[in-house]
Design brief:
single chain, alpha+beta, Nuclear Transport Factor 2, Chain: A, two-stranded antiparallel ribbon, 2 helices
Length: 123
């Protein structure tokens, strides 16, 4: 697991996690909100209800999701939350390098890293 302080401060997304978030964002850009067509190591499949909510929020936001811009890492953060990392990644759309749509995920450290997608919405 990544060596980062487990405190209440917000931290930049570690380089080691960025590739996985790029894969998730690319799958979402292709409309695979359940990650059923994209097997991403360590990432749990997205439950139906969560995938439907993500699709609805993206549609309501307008535009289309796109692969992540490098600029997204300037605003995206993670924070230790009593046993897991809460991660917020600002997504890229076809019209915005960094949109207000944010991917919310948890990374659990028990039994290795397990990633869970919680939502995509405008906070």
């Amino acid at each position: 697991m990544i060596k980062m302080p487990k405190d209440e401060a917000e931290h930049p997304i570690p380089q080691e996690w960025r590739s996985t978030f790029r894969q998730i964002a690319s799958a979402f850009a292709e409309g695979d909100f359940q990650l059923s067509r994209h097997s991403i190591d360590g990432v749990a499949p997205v439950p139906d209800a969560v995938a439907e909510s993500i699709a609805d929020n993206v549609r309501d936001y307008g535009g289309y999701l796109a692969p992540l811009s490098e600029i997204t890492w300037e605003r995206s953060v993670c924070r230790w939350m009593d046993g897991y990392w809460q991660v917020l990644v600002d997504l890229t759309t076809d019209g915005e390098l960094v949109s207000d749509l944010t991917l919310h995920a948890k990374i659990n450290e028990h039994d290795g890293a397990r990633w869970e997608i919680e939502s995509v919405h405008v906070p």
